[in-house]
TrEMBL record:
<dbReference type="InterPro" id="IPR029510">
    <property type="entry name" value="Ald_DH_CS_GLU"/>
</dbReference>
<keyword id="KW-0560">Oxidoreductase</keyword>
<keyword id="KW-0520">NAD</keyword>
<comment type="subunit">
    <text>Homotetramer.</text>
</comment>
<dbReference type="Pfam" id="PF00171">
    <property type="entry name" value="Aldedh"/>
</dbReference>
<dbReference type="InterPro" id="IPR015590">
    <property type="entry name" value="Aldehyde_DH_dom"/>
</dbReference>
<dbReference type="GO" id="GO:0004029">
    <property type="term" value="F:aldehyde dehydrogenase (NAD+) activity"/>
</dbReference>
<comment type="similarity">
    <text>Belongs to the aldehyde dehydrogenase family.</text>
</comment>
<dbReference type="InterPro" id="IPR016161">
    <property type="entry name" value="Ald_DH/histidinol_DH"/>
</dbReference>
<dbReference type="InterPro" id="IPR016162">
    <property type="entry name" value="Ald_DH_N"/>
</dbReference>
<feature type="domain" description="Aldehyde dehydrogenase">
    <location>
        <begin position="33"/>
        <end position="492"/>
    </location>
</feature>
<dbReference type="InterPro" id="IPR016163">
    <property type="entry name" value="Ald_DH_C"/>
</dbReference>
<protein>
    <recommendedName>
        <fullName>aldehyde dehydrogenase (NAD(+))</fullName>
        <ecNumber>1.2.1.3</ecNumber>
    </recommendedName>
</protein>
<dbReference type="InterPro" id="IPR044638">
    <property type="entry name" value="ALDH7A1-like"/>
</dbReference>
<feature type="active site">
    <location>
        <position position="264"/>
    </location>
</feature>
Length: 511
């Protein structure tokens, strides 16, 4: 029985082969071992994908390099027009792709659709951007000289993405890279290869229709390709999304060859709940932040720092809300919380709870693994709340699961210190109606994160802003604002239109 129409969605996305191993889209660089993609929703095998071998990788790179020679000469607004068509194509496939994201990754259908919406939005953003890749002009210190800067495409951009946003993160990178004139080689998470194949299938029709060389978008599957990308001198920019542990390795490897990186690593995001907060708003922000995507967003709310005077009341409200959470099949819109990605993640979740207890944490809302009908995949867990102290080792770490640590504060300065007192620096927020503490939180003496919000939660950033964070989050910025600059190389040009050749800095050199 296919109650949620998954088979139809798969077929419409061109994913059919279950026994042979589906190939990786237009650029079929896949002759390696079979990767099986199981759904955390019901534990069934969705389809098999062939991984790329080292030879496949080389073939993909050759096509990418070749394609770059053509693509860089296409005027940026024309590249934008092609990205516009990709946005249209994504609109047509929004439902099916959203379903696949939900089924292969396990997030709620609403969030799966939301993720595809982010892809559509970044396409629109990129289209506008294709006419706005502005450089500055400067006044030269020398007469009859003109100075300006221009932005040129880098070349081949390596995109290594994570399972939790299996399609949107790729599009933030690829759509910008494409209008910038770069070509992309994408290595998706081996936990969500079908989402990547589906994306490749969707955009390949647009590339074909416009006679764009297929090497503009290359897909390589399997972990082997990750380090090939990191070590490849032909790839001037690697955009990596994933854990801090692997990010550190990527960062070192790419830096060793003087390549550029955009790193989107772990978060350990907190909400400060002030005594001036509107608790009904905190409720939505904190609960969605903590249990949405089953706690598997890099922007997930992991810590609540609550003013002592409203602590008991907030805990009461949270306990009540957690008591009403429905855990189950994410394709069923009645459920709030879907599964974790796999059993390994379930184990990490259990270990974290155990460690928190050992360090003195007090369970406020009990966790545990769900059993019985509907939970056969073994990946469903109960969102839990633990009263903890910020310095606990486990609180300092990012566990990709719905575990919320709560703690008390008495002054706003202390709250900000706790908020900043972790190695990561992605997202942060304060709920308050007091403008003094709000402004302090947003000031240079406030949150040290790349994202700081007021009266909204830590997750769910819009694509128009630059997305990323400081410290162990890696410092990269993607998506909106001027994040595009990371995908291009800057060239400063000085032109002498006079008949003399004066040197800068007034240096005389008489011949
Ligand atoms: C991620 O978890 O890797 O802000 C990205 C958000 C989403 C993106 C999360 N727009 O929660």
């Amino acid at each position: 029985t296919d109650q949620f129409g998954i088979q139809e969605a798969l077929a419409s996305l061109g994913i059919k082969e279950i026994n042979e191993g589906t190939s990786t889209g237009s650029n079929s660089f896949a002759n390696g071992k079979i990767i099986e993609s199981y759904s955390p929703v019901d534990g069934t095998l969705i389809a098999k994908v062939k991984a790329s071998t080292a030879d496949d990788y080389q073939a993909a790179m050759a096509k990418a390099e070749e394609a770059f020679k053509t693509w860089r000469l296409v005027p940026a607004p024309k590249r934008g027009e092609i990205v516009r068509q990709m946005g249209d194509e994504l609109r047509k496939h929004k439902d099916a792709l959203g379903q696949l994201v939900s089924y292969e990754m396990g997030k709620s259908l609403q969030e799966g659709l939301g993720e595809v919406q982010e892809m559509i939005d970044i396409c629109d953003f990129a289209v506008g951007l294709s006419r706005q890749l502005y450089g500055l002009t400067m006044h030269s210190e020398r007469p009859m000289h003109r100075m300006y800067e221009q932005w040129h495409p880098f070349g081949v951009v390596g995109i290594i993405s994570a399972f939790n946003f299996p399609v949107a993160v790729w599009s933030w990178n690829s759509m910008l890279a494409w209008v910038c004139g770069d070509v992309c080689i994408w290595k998706p998470s081996s936990k969500t290869p079908l989402c990547a194949v589906a994306c490749q299938n969707i955009i390949k029709t647009v590339l074909e229709r416009n006679n764009v060389p297929e090497g503009v978008s290359c897909l390589v599957v399997g972990n082997e390709s990750g380090d090939l990308i990191n070590n490849d001198k032909r790839i001037p920019l690697v955009s990596f999304t994933g854990s801090t542990r692997i990010g550190r390795h990527v960062s070192k490897t790419v830096a060793e060859r003087f390549g550029n990186t955009i790193l989107e690593l772990g978060g350990n995001n907190a909400i400060i709940v002030s005594e001036h907060a509107d608790i009904s708003m905190v409720l939505v922000g904190a609960v969605f932040g903590a249990v949405g995507t089953a706690g598997q967003r890099c922007t997930t709310t992991r810590r609540l720092i609550i003013h002592e005077s409203v602590y008991d009341k907030t805990v009461e409200v949270l306990k009540n809300a957690y008591g009403q959470l429905k855990i189950g099949n994410p394709l069923d819109s009645n459920n709030h919380v879907g599964p974790l990605i796999d059993k390994g993640s379930v184990q990490d979740y259990l270990n974290a709870i155990e460690k928190a207890k050992q360090e003195g944490g007090k369970i406020i809302v009990e966790g545990g693994v769900m059993e019985g009908e509907g939970y056969e995949s073994g990946c469903y867990v109960k969102p839990c709340i633990i009263e903890a102290e910020n310095h606990f080792n486990i609180v300092q770490e990012e566990t990709f699961a719905p575990i919320l640590y709560i703690m008390k504060y008495s002054t706003i300065e202390q709250a900000i210190e706790l908020q900043n007192g972790v190695p990561q620096g992605l997202s942060s927020s304060i709920f308050t109606n007091n403008m003094r503490e709000m402004e302090l939180f947003l000031s240079q003496a406030g949150s040290d994160c790349g994202i700081a919000n007021v009266n909204i939660g830590t997750s769910g950033a819009e694509i128009g802003g630059a997305f990323g964070g400081e410290k162990e989050t890696g410092g990269g910025r993607e998506s909106g604002s001027d994040a595009w600059k990371a995908y291009m190389r800057r060239q400063t040009n000085t032109i002498n239109y006079g008949t003399q050749l004066p040197l800068a800095q007034g240096i005389r050199f008489d011949l």
